[in-house]
Amino acid sequence: MWIQDIPKRAIADTILKQSGLYGLYEKRLESKILGESLPNHIAIILDGNRRWAKYGLTGTKIGHLQGADRAEELLNWINDLGIRITTLYVLSTENLDRSDDELDNIFELLQQKLERLYADSRIHKRQMKIKAIGNMSLLPSSLQNILHKLEKETDKYSSMFLNIAVAYGGQKELVDAIRQIASRTKTGHLKVEDINEKLIESYLYTSHLPQPEPDLILRTSGEKRLSGFLIWQSAYSELVFMDVFWPEFRKIDLMRAIRTYQSRLRRFGK
Would you call 95 a catalytic residue per the annotation? Predict the structure, then answer.
């Protein structure tokens, strides 16, 4: 996305909203996608906070704040559309190499948003099971504690699922699974011939889900790669890459991605 595109998009959005056309278009698009089969599991790579801040001539801290607010809005859109499983790629293990100041800001924002989520009665009304996936030991203890509280509070729910990939690495996930399988094989609890796709899936971070594999993986910011996200689970996922930075992501962008998904013929290699 070019720097000049950002103000153009903001101006266009303002004109549409003031004219009333934005709401009409949103309703029309929602009606269309609800008339067809929806993805059961959507995974989203929330990318572009820092570039949005750079091109908008604001600080990185503002970029992360706007991105965190947009993630909060996303959960309402997901509920409106009836998507059952959502996995959000919030922070990778590679992101942990950023400056201490930036990480402190990210951790503080995550802490605030997760505490708001914990106090939100809608997670109980929606019967939403919340789980963090990643290497929690790399996070500050306060962040580990609120994630643990959320998991414990929602453990028995099964109507909706929210997975928060934080301090997550796809290769590390596979290494952890292989180590557990190797350990159980060494102790005689498993035989080598027992190892198959289903067994491996049962040791992945997403094993608690009724459908670990995302139907649709969406990445914002224009980058066209998965960056290690759900390496095993994404084998037959539909991929959609959007030229919009995460802080300016809208409900109509989500619905356009779903519309693209619905237009594709899924063969699963057959």
Answer: yes
